[in-house]
Amino acid sequence: MTATLTPQDVADGTPTPETPSVGDTAHLDAIPREGGRRHSVLVIGGGPAGAATGYWLAKAGVDVAIVEKKDFPREKTCGDGLTPRAVTQLQDMGLASKLEEFHKYDGLRTVAHGRTLELAWPDHPIHPNYGYVVRRCDLDNFVANNAVTQGAVLLTGTEAVAPIMEGGQLMGATVKHKASGQTYELRSDFVVIADGANSRFGRAIGTARNRAMPMGMAIRGYFESPLHNEPWIESALDVRDRQGNSVPGYGWIFPVGDGTINVGIGLLSTFSGFKSVNTSHLMTEWAHTLPDYWGIDPTAPIAAPTGGRLPMGSSVNPKVGPNWLVVGDAGGSINPFNGEGIDYAYETGRMAARLLRECIEGGSAIPLQRYPSLLDEEYGLYFKVARLFAKIIGRPVLMRELTRVGMRSRTLMEWVLAIMANLLRPDELGAAELAYKSAATIARVIPERV
Questions:
Q1: Distance in angstroms (rounded) separating the CA atoms of residues 439 and 41
Q2: How big is the CA angle at 211 (ends 209 and 212), to the nearest 5 degrees?
Q3: Handedness of CA 100, 106, 111, 115 (dihedral sign)
Q4: Where does the FAD-binding domain lie (predicted)?
């Protein structure tokens, strides 16, 4: 059960009978009701990045509160696929047995130009060679609850409507409890912004997306299918409409294991007609042209498809302030190769928690300033390669030729899979440098009209 506190609970620090006690709230008794509530760390957003931050902080004994504007469980536009990197983070958070309740898959089936390749996840010294498909309505719920088991306070149905600024310093947030309409303050020594791709709170304190960097757009729906428990997720690199005309973007089919499949299509802003693309039309055409073996009724999605835009390649800055950090989608930490953001949300949340713990233990906010360099060390070169790749695949003719060549070589496509999922082994990191140099060369020599 999600530990949801009411405004009255926030004021006096006392859980309701229906809500488990979450952390030590005895210190709140001395705070006047009109003064709101105070924590060491306030996390804005209870999705993957926010829940991971809250988990690792609470596990270390830090007083942390997470505010999430929706009530769990809640839907989220996503492919629902967990890569091996994401699985590693979830296992490290003690959720290995929980993951086993969901559909496990072995790798990627890629389809293009009349060819099909089934590519297993590579062996890796850190990450497993398998993934899971878990609907976000389930995933985000149990990951957030996992933070609660460690002592984090989780306030759902509660939106951070404005930052509290005093003397140029971020002191917390004014929040609104949606059910009651009550507004009150949550103050903290540190704030983590984890409110997702749109990040209203981030924009309110001055973060902004670099519009020269790629933006993704995706839409997905669920369909019943007899192949709902296939051991492969599937990606189509040569999507065409019902008349056989090539359409922008790539399609995916992810078996959910519950009688349904997640069907979606995504594209990047590097495509010249990005702003004029009708994603609902793309989704309709993609559903009608799915391979017959999936056995879906394209006119009967389980619910209306949903979509959204995704800032990619670390495109949102600044990511750190005097006493705040930006993590996950709110910082543009989404892989331009494949639109994957869950693993980076968990990883950046964990990184932020480590720095915050150092700050709290040392009595200084200075360690936060290492955050950008840590991000660059971990993702800098990789995201640079991915951004260049995004520039290349925005040129449909070139993309078709590259995929035509790639689909003829299993070895090449296995290497591409490892790069796209950021699963190169440490002894292969030179390959990332090579990929960057190759992508840079291609980007320079290919005419803009291609």
A1: 41
A2: 130
A3: negative
A4: 40-215
For residues 341 and 310, the answer to whether their CB atoms sit within 8 Å is: yes
250 within 8 A of 111, measured Cβ to Cβ: no
- Comparing CA positions, the residue from 188, 172, 158 lying closest to residue 2 is 158
- Report yes or no: 194 and 227 within 8 Å, Cβ to Cβ: no
**Helix or strand run (H / E) with residue 237:** none
Domains, the chain, in order of start with CATH, read 7-75+137-209+313-377 (3.50.50.60), 81-136+214-311 (3.30.9.100)
b/e burial code for range 115-138 (CB count within 10 A of at least 16 → b): eebebebbebeebbebbbbbbbeb
The verdict on pTM exceeding 0.90 is no
Report how far residue 336's alpha carbon sits from residue 333's, in angstroms, rounded to the nearest whole number: 9
C-alpha 356/C-alpha 366 separation (Å) is 10
Are 334 and 216 in contact by the 8 Å Cβ rule? The answer is: yes
- pLDDT tens-place values along the chain, 450 residues long: 333 333 333 333 333 323 333 333 333 333 334 456 899 999 999 999 999 999 999 999 999 999 999 999 999 989 999 999 999 999 999 999 999 999 999 999 999 888 999 999 999 999 999 999 999 999 999 999 999 999 999 999 999 999 999 998 999 999 999 999 999 999 999 999 999 999 999 999 999 999 988 899 999 999 999 999 999 999 998 888 888 877 777 899 999 999 999 999 988 887 777 778 888 888 999 999 999 999 999 999 998 999 999 999 999 999 999 999 999 999 999 998 888 999 999 999 999 999 999 999 999 999 999 999 999 999 988 888 888 777 777 666 767 777 888 888 888 788 888 888 888 777 766 655 666 566 556 555 544 443
Residues in the chain: 450
225 in Cβ contact with 261 (< 8 Å): yes
Radius of gyration of the chain (CA): 22
Can you list the alpha helix ranges (DSSP code H) found in 230-302?
279-288
Q: What angle do CA 333, 335, 336 make, to 5 degrees?
A: 120
Name the residue type at position 27. H
- In the numeric block, the tokens 């030179």 are attached to 430
